[in-house]
């Protein structure tokens, strides 16, 4: 909703017959969901590579650098940062997960999600 209003503002087109979907396509903006996912994955990458001081001792990795999703009893926990970011992380190709630097990882994310 916010992004659609911003697209109308940037394009200066408030006519009710104008297609906001076409405006977003012309602006080549990624969706807010894509940006949230990229931010979560980038933070998880920093945590995994010890570039930020966040305790991740409770996370377990497998042989192919995937994380085991923590057990959740409540829906609130299942939608919190670690379980959500881990689900996204495990969907990434191995070559992106193994990038040691944040810029290389972000570049891989851009290619994978075609932002």
> Which structural category do the helix and sheet elements fall into?
mainly alpha
Number of helices: 7
* Poorly predicted spans: none
What gyration radius follows from the Cα positions, in whole Å? Answer: 18 Å
Strand elements, count: 0
Question: Biggest β-sheet, characterized?
Answer: none
Order of helices and strands: HHHHHHH
Range of strand content: under 5%
Could you say which overall geometry the principal axes of the C-alpha atoms support? elongated
Question: CA-to-CA gap between the ends?
Answer: 19 Å
What is the average of the pLDDT values? 86
Q: Roughly how much helix do the residues carry, as a percent range?
A: 55-70%
Structure report:
With 115 residues, the protein is an all-alpha fold. The chain is built from seven helices and no strands. Helix 1 (2-11) packs across helix 2, helix 3 crosses helix 5 (81-91) and helix 3 (32-48) runs antiparallel to helix 7. The chain is elongated.
Short description:
With 115 residues, the protein is an all-alpha fold. It has helices at 2-11, 20-27, 32-48, 75-78, 81-91, 94-97, 102-113. The longest helix is centred in the middle third of the chain and has 17 residues, at 32-48.
């Amino acid at each position: 909703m916010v992004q659609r209003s911003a697209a109308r503002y940037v394009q200066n087109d408030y006519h009710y017959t104008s297609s906001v979907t076409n405006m977003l396509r012309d602006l080549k903006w990624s969706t807010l969901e894509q940006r949230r996912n990229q931010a979560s994955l980038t933070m998880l990458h920093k945590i995994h590579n010890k570039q930020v001081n966040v305790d991740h001792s409770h996370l377990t990795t497998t042989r192919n650098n995937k994380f085991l999703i923590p057990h959740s009893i409540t829906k609130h926990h299942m939608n919190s940062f670690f379980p959500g970011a881990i689900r996204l992380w495990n969907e990434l190709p191995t070559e992106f997960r193994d990038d040691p630097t944040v810029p290389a990882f972000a570049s891989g994310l851009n290619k994978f999600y075609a932002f």
